[in-house]
Amino acid sequence: MRRRGCAESTLNSGRALNGIGLLICLGLLGYAWFAQTVLGLEPCPLCIFQRVGVAACGLLFLLATVQNPGRVAGRVYGVLLLLAAALTLGVAARHLWIQHLPEGAVPACGASLNYMLEVFPLTDVIRKVLTGSGECARVTWRFLALSMPGWVLIAAVGLGALGAVANFSRRSRQQLA
Predict the structure, then answer these.
(1) Least enclosed by CB within 10 Å: which of 77, 84, 104, 118?
(2) pLDDT tens, position by position, 41-63
């Protein structure tokens, strides 16, 4: 049996991979904050839901990093991370779809998210936000021809895959033994 070096075994451990996932989530949320406060890009309701999804992934990665779970708890974290990433991916995909609607098919702008949260029950707010509105269709930022929801979709796929590898992989579980 070949003995692994320190760097190799650290990179294969579930704790290290969960820590990397946490850092990625912090980077995504940090850039979202920068885009809002420095670049002046106001987030639409779907953008806020995507931030919540990334924050949920970050919290799960943080808990998994701190706890360094065994096999069963690791699988629970893996499932929860896949679920959070899938929901984030779904919101980002919906946002991209709204951005690609023809101009006449875009729903009219609605009330702000804060107002809706004050006035309507949470289930109605979620339903209304996911239908999208005019402000969700505007593209005010692009990088390499992708809007922000496109990058969030890619990040959600990566976070889900990283969460699965970190918490389901037999190799990363064996490093704990």
Answers:
(1) 104
(2) 888 888 888 999 999 999 999 99
